[in-house]
Structures are given as C-alpha cells and as structure tokens.
Design brief:
Strand order of the largest sheet: 1-2
Number of strands: 6
Shape: elongated
Helix content: 40-55%
Number of helices: 11
Distance between the termini: 37 Å
Number of domains: 2
Length: about 260
C-alpha cells in the first residue's frame, strides 16, 4: 500500500508543477476519428509531406485505408510510391545514420507522436515556423526553439516572420502550456505571413487539422471501437444491476 501511494504522488507532482508554471498560448483542436473525409485528406498530406523523412512503423497502409473508408486499391495506386505492398508497414527508405548526419538526429517515428505530445502541441507546432537566418535550415519554431526540421509545409502556408520581442512573447495571454519532453514554455508567438503560400490561412489551418487528425488516429486506431464497446458494457452493467439488486433482496428478505 505504501508503494502504491508513493507511485500516485510521483505521477501527480509533475502535473502540479506544469500547471503552476507560466507559459504562452497553445492552440487547441478536437480530433474527430469519425470524420473520414478529414482522415483521408490527412493521410494524403502525411504520405506526401511527412514520409520523406518520418516513418509510421506501427501502422500498416491497408489497415489505415480500411479504417478511414479509403478503398485499398485506390490507396495503393495513389499513396504508395515505392515497391511496398499495401499490407506492409508505413516505413521509409532513409537510412538512420544518414538522417542523423543531415538533421543532427534521426527524425522520429510519428505513429505515436500525438500520444507523446498531444494533438494541441503538434497542431500549434506545424503552424509556428518562422524565418531565422541563424538556423541551418533558415527557419525556427516558436513551439520548439532551435528546431532541426525544415519547414516542409512552407509552400502551402507561405513565409512567416516573428514580429514581437522576447518580452512581448513571454507576456502573451492564453492557457499555460509546457512541453512534456523539454519542460519549455510553448506557444504560437507573434507570427505574420510575409510571403503568401498556395493556401490561405484558413485553408492551411484546415490542412494541418486534417493532418493532425490522421496522426491522432494512428496513435489510437481503436478509439472509436473502444468507445462503442464501453457504451455496451455500461448498458450491460445497468441491466445486470437490476438482477443483482433483486437477488440481494431475495437473499436478505428473511434477515432481520
């Protein structure tokens, strides 16, 4: 019992520490795994824009297609560009050693990234790149300072510039958020589009929502099934309670 209470304290202390630390605003999104059109668009963006460097080793092409209502043959024709089969995992050809040389560290596998950082973090991060000539790729990120990733979505979003000072950034309003891995404060900052991309701000936000929605699905592909089973279990327990209560009354009827 003593070990149990110690474990509970160890879990709760970091949560309290995070809640008490100031930060800047982190944009929120509500993932919807029932929106198959969004998931299909998100898979398209993920394959075309992310899988050049990032793998999804714990997800299979055909499983994703079946779950999001996309015909497997259509998916294989349009979203598999190598010699992989539709039943194989969503791996990439980039060697890990080469990736470490080019980026400083191998790009992470993204299958469970939303479980690690959360949908809000990724949604904000992908929309928060800005120009920074001091960085190797010419960009930085408000959410992840000194990021080693190039802005692969710049063609869609356009070029963003940071337009506020560090003091203004630190005193922005909004919900306090802390990066679960680095412990750093995170937020969107004061960003403005200096060169337009192929999409408007609203269109780009929708593209990122669809992408993160698909990544959220990959992190928990059985979420909808689990919820459906949960409702059935609750209904069963409610019905079972009636019979259990009647049986209890019968057993204790003659006890005074």
């Amino acid at each position: 019992m003593k070990k149990f209470f110690i474990a509970i304290i160890m879990v709760l202390v970091p949560m309290v520490a995070s809640a008490s630390t100031g930060g800047v605003h982190l944009d929120s999104m509500d993932a919807d795994h029932t929106n198959q059109e969004s998931l299909q668009r998100g898979m398209k963006t993920f394959v075309n824009r992310c899988m050049g460097c990032h793998s999804a080793n714990y997800q299979r092409f055909d499983r994703a297609a079946n779950d999001i209502g996309l015909p497997v043959d259509l998916m294989a024709e349009n979203l598999i560009f190598g010699e992989q089969k539709s039943g194989e995992q969503m791996t990439i050809a980039m060697p890990q050693d080469d990736a470490a040389k080019w980026f400083g560290t191998p790009p992470p596998d993204l299958t469970l990234e939303t479980r690690l950082r959360g949908e809000d973090w990724i949604y904000t991060y992908l929309r928060s790149f800005y120009t920074d000539s001091a960085r190797p790729w010419g960009v930085n990120n408000v959410v992840f300072p000194d990021v080693g990733m190039p802005n692969v979505l710049e063609g869609l979003q356009g070029v963003q510039k940071q337009t506020c000072s560090a003091e203004e950034l630190a005193h922005q309003g909004g919900e306090s958020k802390i990066d679960p891995l680095t412990g750093l404060q995170i937020g969107t900052g004061c960003l403005t589009i200096s060169e337009k991309g192929s999409q408007s701000v609203e269109e780009f936000d929708k593209t990122i929502y669809d992408l993160v929605n698909f990544m959220s699905y990959m992190g928990n592909p059985v979420k909808m099934e689990s919820q459906a089973i949960g409702y059935k279990v609750l209904i069963f327990l409610a019905i079972f309670f009636v019979f259990a209560y009647a049986l209890k009354k019968e057993y204790w009827r003659d006890v005074h």
